[in-house]
Design brief:
The chain is mainly β and about 200 residues long. It is built from 3 helices and 11 strands. The protein binds the ligand Nc1nc2c(c(=O)[nH]1)N[C@H]1C(S)=C(S)[C@@H](COP(=O)(O)O)O[C@H]1N2 and molybdenum atom (MO).
């Protein structure tokens, strides 16, 4: 028996067939999972940077970032702590837009955040319409605990990859473990393959 509390057990909903990955249950609320305190960077000080293995680093102020073309994304999200939430609605800038014109031979990215959190991803998992930097959830600006002013959204992977309070992407030739990946979470985190921990 586990010595850890399993927390609140709500009524487990099953959801439409094919929508909920193995080992997950549905929630209607939006739980908050943060490894540390909520950073509160004023937008006047906020920037988004593409750095690392690039011809020239790119940087946007908050104002410039909001002027980029954005998209509405309706998607399911899946947390490794086993909750899934269907049809969440976000607005954000596609990572493809941020990488437009960036000349790189990198194959990995490390997302970095206010507060020091990081998460690593193959470049392939954040390009071709698979990832966004979201600034709004459910028609409202992001709430502080959900990542304001901006968070990464990579809905096809477990939600720890969707870095809150994101400040940029470092492009890397070699994969480099992020915060949870160094502590035992799976390097990639595909919920359909239940890639929760090292060795899954
Ligand atoms: N900067 C930062 N981003 C983060 C985290 C964090 O602790 N810090 N937690 C991750 C984890 S483990 C999860 S499950 C999701 C939770 O997002 P939510 O709090 O909006 O539900 O954020 C991810 N992004
Ligand atoms: Mo998580």
């Amino acid at each position: 028996m586990s010595v850890f509390s399993r927390g609140f057990r709500g009524r487990r909903q099953e959801g439409p067939p094919g929508r909920v990955p193995p080992g997950q249950y549905l929630v209607d609320d939006f739980p908050v999972l943060s490894a540390g305190p909520t950073p509160e960077t004023p937008v006047e000080e906020w920037t988004f940077t593409i750095t690392g293995d690039v011809d020239a680093p790119r940087q946007w102020s908050w104002e410039e970032f909001l002027a980029l073309p954005s998209e509405t994304i309706t998607t399911d999200i899946h947390c490794v702590t086993r909750w899934s939430k269907l049809d969440t609605v976000w607005e954000g800038v596609s990572v493809d837009t941020l990488l437009e014109g960036v000349d790189t031979s990198a194959e990995y990215v490390l997302a970095f955040c206010d507060g020091g959190y990081t998460t690593n991803l193959p470049l392939e998992d954040v390009t071709d319409g698979k990832a966004w930097v979201a600034v709004s959830y459910d028609g409202e600006p992001l709430e502080a605990e959900h990542g304001a002013p901006a968070r990464l959204l990579v809905p096809h992977l477990y939600l720890w990859k969707s870095a809150k309070w994101i400040r940029g992407l470092q492009l890397l030739a070699e994969d480099e473990s992020g915060f949870w990946e160094a502590l035992g979470y799976h390097d990639r985190g595909d919920p359909w393959q239940e890639q929760r921990h090292w060795g899954d």
